[in-house]
Specification:
five-stranded mixed β-sheet, alpha+beta
Length: 158
């Protein structure tokens, strides 16, 4: 199995949007507005200041993805990279796709002297994902996430 990790571009927008729709339904039982998700994916792909997607390709097929966004930490004088929109297609699960994406991201972060940490949030009921993140060396923090939804969306992480 030949796997390649690469930065996503505009030609990947429809696959990424589809993966995000599947992610929301699988992990949180949410049916998101496809037009809104497509616009959101496109906005990020057109503006690297918002973040970046990485995709894993196996034999030319996009098998998985993750997105990073940035948060400046004045306490640590550096950037935190937030890992979001993690998705691996069913037929490629348990084959190391997310691990390879994570390792790629970790290596990129370590090459830069202004990245001080990698973070993500995970649904409280998603024990499988939590185990995966712990197996990669990530640790649970003492932080809880609070949100005030200003657009009236029905919950969800994204």
């Amino acid at each position: 199995m030949e796997m390649m990790i690469r930065r996503a571009g505009l030609p990947d927008a429809s696959v990424i949007a589809d993966f995000n729709l599947r992610l929301a339904e699988e992990t949180e039982g949410l049916r998101l507005d496809p037009a809104c998700v497509e616009a959101g994916v496109g906005a990020l792909l057109k503006d690297p200041a918002k973040g970046v997607y990485f995709v894993a390709e196996i034999n030319g097929t996009v098998a998985g993805q993750l997105m990073i966004t940035y948060e400046w930490s004045d306490w640590r004088n550096g950037n935190l990279w937030w890992i979001q929109s993690v998705y691996v297609k069913h037929e490629f699960r348990a084959q190391g796709v997310f691990r390879r994406l994570f390792e790629h991201l970790k290596a990129l972060a370590q090459e830069q002297n202004n990245v001080v940490g990698l973070r993500l949030y995970v649904h409280a009921d998603n024990a499988r994902a939590q185990r995966s993140y712990q197996n990669l060396g990530m640790m649970r923090t003492k932080y809880e996430v609070f949100e005030l939804d200003l657009r009236g969306h029905s919950g969800g992480a994204g």
